[in-house]
Amino acid sequence: MKNLDKYLSLLNNEVNGLLLTSRYARHYGAEFDIAEGVAIVSKKGCRYFTDSRYIESAEKGIQGFEVLPINQFTGFVKRINDAIEDFGITTLGFEEKYLSVEELMGYERELHAKLVPFNKEIYGFRGIKEEWELDLMRKAQEITDKAFSEVITRIKPGMTELQLQAELIYCLYKNGGQGLSFDPIVVSGPNTSLPHGVAGERVIQEGDFVTMDFGCLYHGYCSDMTRTVAVGYATEEMKTVYSTVLAAQLAGIAVTKAGTIGRDIDAAARKVITDAGYGQYFGHGYGHSLGLEVHEGPNPNPGNANPMPAGAVCSAEPGIYIPGKFGVRIEDVTIVKEDGCEIITGSPKNLIIV
Q1: 347 Cβ neighbours under 8 A, 6+ residues apart
Q2: Per-residue pLDDT averaged across 201-215, rounded?
Q3: CATH superfamily name and code, 131-343
Q4: Euclidean distance between CA atoms 164 and 156, whole angstroms
Q5: pTM, entire model
Q6: What's the Cα-to-Cα distance from 70 to each of 52, 112, 189, rounded to whole Å?
Q7: Has residue 1 got a pLDDT over 80?
Q8: What rounded mean pLDDT belongs to the chain?
């Protein structure tokens, strides 16, 4: 089933049109990425509106939608109202997660249809990926693995975190990345105790852990991985913490399959860390789903009491973070299947000393 058909299946007498304003919903419905635009979906017709910067690409790449330009004389509101009239739309489901209050108030004031919050329904299909989506994500992870294998050869004492971050970004693009899933996290030494630390001028030294959390975009789909490596040597404590995190990740992966409750996957990994005496140093969830966005649902974390579905793509990323000393996180991406999960991250997980 094409993604547009999934959106059309949401429509009924109560909600007979969709207003797609986020890049992610537009990309999903049109199966084509345009930076800016708005789309209307109805059973009587679908239209995609964008400006002169993207109109040629949209006309060539988008199927299933009539593509129309907007400009200073004919803006989004005029185009949407024309579609409302032409298609007999009375109620538009919209993405409340992605509209600002100002935008919503403007649409409510100007549009000739009732607006109904509909983000959950519009978003819901994305939790289970089609096989072609999985192939794109496998390719994104392949690019990310190649970047990791190159960047670890460039880590040297004396370089700064920012310099290493620049090398990492270069390697992602060099190997085929079409963008970044998110701003990379590159931290070293005591900064590795910051799960989402920001690269700075700190100089990497012998005996440091270096944590790199990064990913790329490939045809709009995200990759995500984290590796922690040691520079020069690792102390026994560093090795113990690393092996504990790896054991926790493997425990979570072992129970990941369709039908397993999200929080139970987290619990399997968390038990390993807690039993080792580091429970207070693991503050975040085991993982998150990803796709067109690097953080999607459903999530294998303590807040999810629902079973994970086959076709979900989720990270496996437990960590231990000891303030003032160091931290370790190891992250792979997995595809949930009926009988287990497929790990699509190919980089080694043994402790690498560079």
Answers
A1: 145, 148, 149, 225, 227
A2: 98
A3: Creatinase/methionine aminopeptidase superfamily (3.90.230.10)
A4: 9
A5: 0.93
A6: 8, 18, 51
A7: no
A8: 97
